Description:
106 residues; alpha+beta; 2 helices; elongated
Amino acid sequence: MRLFRATCALDTLGMHVHHAEWKVCGMEAMERRRAAAERVRTAEDAVERLKAGFAGAGVKLPSLRVDPVSCAGDEPTPLVDLGRCNIDTALRLCEVLAEKESGHDG
């Protein structure tokens, strides 16, 4: 747990005076960690929904995942990595998009 003071009064020995003014920042850090974990969970949910949606259209993106590097650090900003695919998968995606554009859900 990290401690800090908004204002700091030092005595002649460099010691903090008014220890009652110390503020505990642990709660703020816990809230940030909770929010970060929620962002990662949301990204993981999006990946699962994308996998299911693509599977329903006959498309499998083998590299579809949450980018692990974007989840690093104290305040991650997760990215969904759609990854790479072979030419057959790319063509199938083109077919699915064309069907959607023309109004046919095949």
